[in-house]
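User: I'm curious whether this sequence folds into something compact or stays loose and floppy. Could you predict its structure so I can see for myself?
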Amino acid sequence: TFEAVGTVLAHLKFAHSAANLGSVETIVGPPATTSHVECSKEEREAMGIPESLIRYSTGIEDIKDLVDDLGNALSKLK
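Assistant: Here's the prediction. I'll summarize afterward.
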C-alpha cells in the first residue's frame, strides 16, 4: 500500500527521498510522487505501476550500508 511505502521511506538512512538529484547519492521515492507524478492512479495501474512500488536508484554508497539500511527499513513493515 502507499502507507507501507511511507513507512519504508521514513526508516531509510542512506537513501534520499527525491525524484532526481542529478548526483551520485542513492535516491528513493514512489513513482506517484516522482517519476510518474503527472499520471493518475488509474494510468499508473494500466502501466503496471502499483501504488506500493518504491523507485530505488542506487548511488555510490557502500553496498553493505545500502543493503543493511533497506533491510532495516523493510523490517518495519512487520
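Summary: The chain has one domain: 2-75. The longest strand covers residues 27-29.
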